[in-house]
Amino acid sequence: MDVNDVLRDVNPAEVTNLTIPDFMIGARIWLAVGELQFYTVLGENGMPSLVEPSVVNPRDPSANVSWGFVEYTLNEAGIYADISFVDFMGLPLGIILESETTTVQSALGPEIGSVQNICNDLAGQAAIDGQPWDRLCVYNAAGNPLRVLSPVDYLTLDADAFDGYYDSYVDSVWERYTSEPLTILTQSSAGPVNCTVDPSTNLLSCEGDNRAYAQPTAADIFGCNSGPFAIEASDNAVHLAVVPRLCAAFNRGTLLLDDGNVTPTFPMNVYYTNDGPKNWYSAFVHRYEADGKGYAFAYDDVVPDGGADSAGLTASPDPEVLTIVVGGSSTRE
C-alpha cells in the first residue's frame, strides 16, 4: 500500500473511505486528534521494528495527543474487529460491521465526554477508598483529560500503586471456598469444575487442573497474566479455562455475592455491584460505553452461555463495510 492510502486527514463530521488489504493479522487502525509519531529502530539482528506511540512514556513524541485504535484481523476466514480499552481509554471510538450474510454488529464505544466523566468518577472513588484511581487520568498542558490509563498500565509507572488493595477481599474469597466449592463453568468439554482451598497449603485447587492457584495480588488481578494467572506451556485445557473465568470474577467483584460460587453466571448489570474491592477502571469504562461493549481488562470477553457481550468483538466471514465512529457515541442502547 502507498503511504497516502493509509494516512488521512479527516475533518469533524467528515466521512472518509479506506480500502484495507486482505490478510492483515493483528492489525490496528489508529486515529488521533493531531499527529501521531511512528518510527523504526534496528534490533541487534539488524532488522527494523516499529515503535508505536506509548501511553506510559510521558516523553513519547505523541504524549500530548489524544488517540485510540481499532484492532482487527482480516484473512481467509473473514474479519474479527474490536475496540479495546485494556490499556487505556483515550479518543472515543466505536465500530459498526456490515456484511453480506450476517446481521449488523456494533460496539458503539464510549459516549461523548466519557473521558472527563470517567476521570470525575475515579477522583470520587479515590476520595472514598484512598487508592490512586485519580492518577489514572492523563491531562494535557491546559488541564484537559487526554486519556485514562488502566490500572495495570499505571502500575508500570508506580509499582507500589494499589499495593494490598485486594488483600482483604482475596482472604475472604479463600475463606469462603475453604468450606464450600467454587464451581467454574469451563464452557468446554471439561464441563463444570469444582475448586476448593486446601488450608494446609493455602492454594485453590480445581478438579482436573494441572496446577493450583496461590492468592493473587492487585497487580495479578488487573493484568490477568502474572502470579497465579500466568499461563505456562504445560498447562492443560482445564487450567486454560479456569484462569480467564477466575480472573474475570475477581475484576468484576462477583466471588462473594450470594450466588457467586458458580461462575460465570451473572448478567452484566451485576458486575461491579459488590461492596468490596473491584476494578473501578473497568466499571467506569463500561458505565460510559453507549452499549456497555468494549474490552476493559484482558478477559472481559468471559460471559455466561447466552449472555450479553461485554467485550465488543465483531466478526463476519464475508465483511463488506467496517465503520469507525470517532469522538464518542450520542446513542445509548
Automatic annotation (TrEMBL):
Pfam families: Glyco_hydro_64. Residues 1-313 form the GH64 domain. InterPro entries: Glyco_hydro_64, Glyco_hydro_64_fam, Glyco_hydro_64_N_2, Osmotin/thaumatin-like_sf. Gene3D superfamilies: Beta-1,3-glucanase, C-terminal domain, Thaumatin. PROSITE patterns: GH64. PANTHER family: GLUCANASE B, PTHR38165. This is GH64 domain-containing protein. It comes from Hortaea werneckii EXF-2000.
